[in-house]
Structures are given as structure tokens and as C-alpha cells.
């Protein structure tokens, strides 16, 4: 059945130019043998064109132009249209074979977030999904799955991980990063940027988000805010998009400022401390891997230098007022201080809760509740 896609008619059949040629000869009362004689082609060749066994080449099209008074472009266009239609029909069969594959992906979420278009036809939806990944077929998508699995199986298995959803979330980060113009990566510059980023922890999201993207892009790091997808459990990710451009991807899985900023600086630690070939996915759970522990220490020390922290926690009493004062002196948000106190069990997990700020997504941007 023919379809209409983007106001374009897409036939489910192909007409070989030989059929048009046969009709044209009938209208002129010209036999195949006469056409062969006039063009210099063999009768067999003419017959194979009419039966759809041979194409109309550019050379043949020129001969037909002179004999039949139809332009070379006319015959070439007929052949091109036939070839394209045959390719699309074959591709359609492959897409139809992959319709069940769609069920593994969070298609509705992707449509709702306008990452892809909704298609009425399931095979067309498969094509839309392939376009999202920037691959020609399901076979070319496999590396996305394999990369995600390789990381997923190194992580805790406490929650059910949908590898297809993980691959979607990672790909959306890449797509956003492609739109962020970055200067070549500057390692020393990125270290300096983190000092400014630390001060941004005290700002509201509508201020820090754009500023964070800008200052990191200036030193070769693209920061992408991508809402979490179900069955991914991801709070952040780090990967290199080339030798001169790194990506930090943040999901806002954990809603509070201490967790959000710790994730950002943890990912920054991976960029500064570790190689350019690895992909780091953060489930926010304790991990014994050396590189994860290194990134954790890096984040903690950047947010609150160790000497300042030791001095603070050794004080006789921890009060809300002392936390607020220390946070102001240190140049970080008070919620970050509370979060570290809770993590290190200096206080209970309900203590100081009101000092934490909660972030939520709003219209694809993060805002503070």
C-alpha cells in the first residue's frame, strides 16, 4: 500500500523504465527491432530493457533521446526513480522485520520529549529511531548496545537496567553536545573553570545552568542536561567525543543540589584523571573501582578542600547556623555541606534537610522548586 510521508507520495511498487519505453513504442507503432536498428543496440538488449532485466544507462538514454525525441534527462530520471524505489522497498522489508525491536525502547518518552517524531506506521517509526542514532540499520546500532552493556555489567545489579534505554540517553547527550560549540580541550583551563563552577553551586538553576555550559565549552567540555529515562538509573556520564572535546552528561536523577553538584564534579574528575577511551556511567551507588573512588575523592576535595573540612567537622557542635556560616565562608551551597555531613554520618539523614535545594525539570530545562 502506498504511503504519504511528509507530504510526499511513497509508492509501494516500482515501474521499470522499460514499461514506459514499451508504451512509447506502441504509440509510435515502432517495433523493438526498428528501435534496435535506429539506436545501434542489439534487439536482445532492447528486449531486456523492456522486460525490466537491464537498466537504461546514460549512453542508452542519449540514443533514445535522438531516436524518440525524449530528453536524456527524461530517461535517466525514470531509471533513477525506479532504482530509488526498489532500494526503498527492500529497505522497507528490513524495517518491517525490526518492528518488534521497537518495544525495547522508550519510544513514547522520546516522542514526548521531542527527541524523535511520532510515526503512525511502525516501520517508519523504526526508521525514525535509526535516524535518532545516526545509523543506517539495526546492525549498525549494535555498538551502542555493546558499549552500554560493557559498562552496565561493571555496575551494581541492584536495579533492572534497560540497555536500550541507556543507549538512548547516551545518544541524546551526544546530540545535544554536537550543538555546543567548544574550544579545543584545555586541561589547565578546565581545572580553573572548576573553581568558578564551585561558586555557581550557590546560584539558582536559571543562572548556573547556562553559565556552566558556557565556561566549560570555552575549555573543550560540553555539558548536556538530559532528563533521566526509566530503567536507566543514571545520574551522570562522561565520555570523549574526540581528542579535543569531552562530554559531561547529567540527568538530575537525584533531585537535591548536593547530589547534582557532586555528580558534576565527579564527572569532571574522570575527565582530568582518566583516559579518553573509557565511558563512565554513574548509578550513584557505592563502587569499589579505583577510578570511581578517585573521582569521588576529587569531587569531595574540589567542593570542600580537605583541610577546611577537617577543621569544620572537628568543631564541638554542628548547628544549622554553623553550617550556613561555613558554607558561606567556603563559597559553596549549604546543601552541599549538609550532604557531606550526612554521607560521612556526622549527622542523621534528616538533619539539616531544609538547607538542601531541590531541582526539577521544567520544559526541558532544570528549575528550582
Automatic annotation (TrEMBL):
Sequence ranges assigned to domain HTH cro/C1-type in this UniProt record: 21-75
Pfam families associated with the record: HTH_3, Peptidase_M78
Assigned keywords, A-Z: DNA-binding
Origin: domain of life: Bacteria
Protein family (similarity comment): Belongs to the short-chain fatty acyl-CoA assimilation regulator (ScfR) family.
Cited NCBIfam families: antidote_HigA
PANTHER family: ANTITOXIN HIGA-1 (PTHR36924)
Full protein name: HTH cro/C1-type domain-containing protein
Biological classification of the source: Bacteria, Pseudomonadati, Pseudomonadota, Magnetococcia, Magnetococcales
